[in-house]
Amino acid sequence: MKEEKDLFNRFRNKDHSSREQPSERAWNKLEAKLDDHNAENQAPVVPLRPKFQWLKIAAGLAILLGTVAILRPQLKDALNPTQMASNDSESFVIEDLEYSQPSGFYALAIQSSKYYATQPSKLAEGRHEQRLQITNRKTRMPNRTTLAMNESLAKDANTLETVASKKMNSSNGIVSEDYKVASATEKLEIQEVDVDENDLSNTEVENTAIVEANVEFDDASKVTFNDAVTDTESLPSVSTSSAKAVQKSYSKSKKRAVQHYSEVAEENLDASGYEKISAHSNAIAFESLAPSDVNVDYFKWLIGNWEATYDDQSNNIQTWEQKDQFTLSGNAILTINGAEILVERMEIKKIDDQLYFLRVDTQSGEVIKYSLTSLKNDTAVFSNTIIKDEFSIKLNTFNNFSQQNTPSGALQMSQFPGASNATFNFVKTQKD
Amino acid sequence: MTEKELIKGCLKQDRKAQQMLYEQLSPRMLSVCKRYVKSTQNAEDVMVEAFFKVFTKIEQYGDKGSFEGWVRKIMVNESLMFLRKRKPTENAFEPRESDAQQTLNIQDDLEARDILKLLNQLPNGYRTIFNLYVIEGFKHREIAEKLSISINTSKSQLILAKKKMRELLVKNNYPGIRATDSM
User: Fold this and answer.
1) A259 and A356: one domain?
2) pLDDT attached to residue A55
3) Among the three residues B43, B72, B88, which one is the final residue of a domain in this structure?
């Protein structure tokens, strides 16, 4: 093997010193080609007749005056460096995001390393209109993307009671007056150490994934992550199989980098209500868990009476009924020592395309509005992102919510993080 | 005249400088082209085309690195382009059994002409990848890009090319090589 390596080195050395005189024909051919090329590139010169000489001078003067006129403001600026600096701008690549329905759709514009910017992200899974997609492409804010983001933000903002009005400011790219992306950057680099299979001194392969992202909204909510993972692996042995080992190691490390990227992204994105559907080396996609077409009929199984008995023998009875096509309403009555106290009024209501859980505190009259963020495994989660509260309704024994008339399910209502993660278990006592 | 002065002259399209540079480099460059393109006539045509590019795009060299290395790269690319154009319907990087076999009489050390003869016995695809990897020193990734093939194809073709080369060396009684040696 060593002899062969030496031999191939000798091949290289010998070849680099080898020479062969070309025929005369070769130079003649080259010269003719160069002549043709030069002739093509030289514009024909038409000499001016003496009586048009003054035209030459006039044209020269006109060019001179024109140049001075153009350069004058720049010369002025040159004397004022502060003003020059303020005119500096950085160019960036603009690329349109694809989308069909903008509702429920977030797109975070981000920056990427040159290498991965050229790689198309393959994120096709999940419903487009429900997709939270993060790619590491360069910042891009073309009209359609901006529209999608604006609509999404506006829609989201409607569910936030503290935000009164939304005025879109298209001149800044994204955004509403109350809720805008202040900055969005992201970078993912996977650095690989190239391993030459013929170089026996290489016994390790190293891959480093550097993940950085920062998205800030001016309402103080923010998505930030910055992490790096380095993966070093020793090759099992340096042999003819080293190429295979290197390949295997590469793909394993890349897989880990992608896994790490998606884990870090998930941890830091506060992507509750979203489920990761796809992750690639340069992109990650989440799908909203809340179906957009769900309506109050989904919760018809609630209609009737539900009872929870506590340790102190007090009872909580919930009564649910259908108020109209878009609303289910419920009362919670607490019975203590025979006395009945109305503690809460509730509604599940469809407003526009969104389903809400409304809780009315009977003491204060305050309405807390939760929007449906997830509907999975018989658990519906309603959230209020302003007060960072979630309220879940879970039906334990039913296979799914569509089996409306089964009366024996155990209704579990949980509120978290408030009320110490209290969970109330109700049993249906009366059919609808 | 030094190489720098010749390059300066070529930048001004000075024919004398072009000719001097050509005379200096063409013997080495013709042997590069001949490694890829077997026939001398075709290799000369490829070299002329490549030199034409060198002289008309010389401003792209920009005084970075070795000038000869830059010219050599153009020669290699031009040779690859020739191979691609010549066999548009065939995959030039697949082995072909019809390639002629020659017998050499290698006693001890290999001379440049022996290497060329050995290379000429390799099928086109093997020869190209062997040339690019072993002689030019390109990485598989670069070869894959140049030939529009996958990295794995480049690697597997190289292994087969080396195997074939070993067989040729054994056949020609090159000392110290056994038919079963691994790469």
Assistant:
1) no
2) 58
3) B88
pTM above 0.90, yes or no: no
- Please, what is the Cα angle at A183 between A180 and A186, to 5 degrees? 130
* Per-residue pLDDT, B47: 94
Rounded mean pLDDT, A150-154 = 39
Round to whole Å and give the CA distance between A307 and B103.
97
Interchain pair A194, B56: CB under 8 A: no
Distance from CA of A18 to the nearest CA of B (A): 6
CA of residue A53 relative to chain centroid, distance: 66
The position carrying tokens 């090589």 is B177
- Can the peptide bond before residue A50 be classed as cis, meaning omega within 30 degrees of 0? no
CB-based contact (8 Å) between B35 and chain A? yes
- The reply to whether A8 falls in a domain is no
Q: Which of B73, B1, B181, B37 is nearest to A3 (CA)?
A: B181
The answer on pLDDT for A24 being more than 60 is yes
Q: Counting runs of H as helices and runs of E as strands, what totals does chain B give? A: 8, 0
Angle at B7 between CA A25 and CA B43, to 5 degrees: 30
CB contact under 8 Å between B52 and A14, yes or no, is no
State whether residue B179 sits within 8 Å of chain A by CB: no
- Cα distance between residue A152 and residue B25, in whole Å: 64
Nearest to A427 by CA among A298, A296, A304: A304
What residue type is assigned to position A22 of the chain? Answer: P
Q: What are residue A288's DSSP bridge partners? A: A274
Q: Which of B24, B25, B31, B106 to mutate to test the interface with A (most CBs of A within 10 A)?
A: B31
Cβ B4 vs Cβ A20: under 8 Å: no
What is the model's pLDDT at position B57?
87
Structure tokens at A152: 């999404």
Question: Which pLDDT band holds residue B55 (cuts at 50, 70, 90)?
Answer: very high
List the domain range (segments joined by +) for residue B129. 113-183
- Going by C-alpha positions, the residue among A283, A255, A259, A253 that lies closest to residue A192 is A253
Best of A30, A37, A40, A248 to disrupt the B interface (most B CBs within 10 Å) is A30
Does residue A51 fall inside a structural domain?
Answer: no
Cα-based distances in Å from B96 to A230, A252, B43: 44, 36, 21
